[in-house]
Design the sequence.
């Protein structure tokens, strides 16, 4: 059986305190593109259909367990934290009944790809342990790997324990490795803390395998794929790199980004073909955009579904639960939340539409508000097909406006409006001829007397 056919278990090390983040949120739960970095990693590894996923936690275990709800991943605890090899050993009892390949990786390395892991696992066809290496622009304090041109590792050493000659080597250790379950627990058990840092180092799994005369192979990956995130600055850098790749992918798939560097995507944003995105658009999680949609500048969209031909913005905000039917239009300074707009419905400017159902072809005038909240509960507004809501109207939910009905501008509607009906709710207009002229004359005279 080849490595590619062998069941895979994943151990993700996430027990570190992440003190450089200076945050109450666990380091591996800090988001990139609106998605925790740990879930980025598990999503990528999920493409390999692992049989088991074990997260080794310590500080902030409860946060990790909450984030993993429904994922099928298991959480074990490392306490105290004595090093990466010790952390990996914490998964031994949980995986006692597992037979197959065991991958060990890190929760703060979110961009490790399934393709790279597949290559790493394939290297076990001729080796007992396979490690993932990379060649960084600045090798800094990474552990070093000495290997021949065939990828056979002769030595692995931590930077603190390396000689000047070994530090000159530019092949560095990412810390990621894979071995068969028949080998990894025995090799982990042999690791000791006889080193400068007095820690149980995971790379010593490879060191002990080499000492036993077993072949250890190295597979190389791109530096950007294995970079860990330990600080807010590194998190921002990772966000920038992710966004840059996503913008390129959107354009490759047929979307036009007028100013790509100003558009921010979420991890699950889906854009159709011939979508136009103007500058300064932000996509939060849960957005699906169909073909031929125009998203004008300075719009914020989250948790929304946009059908073919929709136009949004500029300066629009679509909040979770927004569903826009074909050819619907949301204009400038319009906010929509938890509402469905039918085909061709439009709210061109200065309106709030919340907890509403707007029929096909309906027109929402400027300044219209669906008054959906009484301080305790939310209520729904239903607007029928082709209804016309005049400017500066307040629709006090729960209320229904029938098909083809007209609500006159400036109305405060508190009762249902029947189909085809006109509803006008205004105070009586008073006309007092000459009143303004008399007022101005009196005020001017009074002002002149004060100056005198």
Sequence:
């Amino acid at each position: 059986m080849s490595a590619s056919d062998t069941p895979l278990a994943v151990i993700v090390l996430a027990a570190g305190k992440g003190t450089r983040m200076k945050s109450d949120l666990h380091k591996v739960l800090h988001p990139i593109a609106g998605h925790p970095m740990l879930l980025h990693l598990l999503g990528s590894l999920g493409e390999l259909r692992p049989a088991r996923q074990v997260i080794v936690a310590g500080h902030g275990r409860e946060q990790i367990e909450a984030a993993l709800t429904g994922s099928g991943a298991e959480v074990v605890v490392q306490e105290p934290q004595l090093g990466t090899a010790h952390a990996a050993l914490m998964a031994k009892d949980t995986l006692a009944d597992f037979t197959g390949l065991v991958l060990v990786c890190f929760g703060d390395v979110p961009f490790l790809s399934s393709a790279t892991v597949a290559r790493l696992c394939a290297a076990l066809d001729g080796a007992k342990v396979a490690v993932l290496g990379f060649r960084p622009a600045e090798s800094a304090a990474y552990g070093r790997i000495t290997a021949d041109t065939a990828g056979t590792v002769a030595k692995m050493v931590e930077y603190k324990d390396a000689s000047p000659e070994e530090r000159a080597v530019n092949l560095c250790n990412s810390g990621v490795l894979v071995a068969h379950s028949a080998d990894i627990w025995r090799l982990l058990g042999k690791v000791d803390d006889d080193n400068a840092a007095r820690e149980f180092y995971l790379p010593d799994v490879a060191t002990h395998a080499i000492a036993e005369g077993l072949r250890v192979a190295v597979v190389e990956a791109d530096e950007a794929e294995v970079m860990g995130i330990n600080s807010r600055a590194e998190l921002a850098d990772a966000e920038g790199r992710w966004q840059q790749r996503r913008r390129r992918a959107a354009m490759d798939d047929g979307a036009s980004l007028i100013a790509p560097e100003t558009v921010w995507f979420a991890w699950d944003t889906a854009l159709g073909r011939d979508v136009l995105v103007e500058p300064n658009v932000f996509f939060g999680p849960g957005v699906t955009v169909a073909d031929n949609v125009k998203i004008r500048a300075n719009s914020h969209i989250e948790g929304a579904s946009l059908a073919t031909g929709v136009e949004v913005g500029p300066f629009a905000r679509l909040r979770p639960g927004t569903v826009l039917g074909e050819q619907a239009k949301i204009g400038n300074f319009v906010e929509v939340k938890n509402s469905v707009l039918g085909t061709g419905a439009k709210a061109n400017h200065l309106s709030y539409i919340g907890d509403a159902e707007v029929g096909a072809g309906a027109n929402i005038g400027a300044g219209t508000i669906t008054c959906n909240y009484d301080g305790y509960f939310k209520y729904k507004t239903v607007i029928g097909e082709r209804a016309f809501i005049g400017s500066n109207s307040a629709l006090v939910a729960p209320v229904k406006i029938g098909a083809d009905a007209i609500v006159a501008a400036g109305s405060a509607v508190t009762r249902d409006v029947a189909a085809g009906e006109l509803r006008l709710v205004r105070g009586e207009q008073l006309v007092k001829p000459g009143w303004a002229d008399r007022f101005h004359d009196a005020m001017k005279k009074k002002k002149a007397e004060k100056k005198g």
Q: What stands out?
A: The mean pLDDT is 94. The two ends are 108 Å apart (CA to CA).
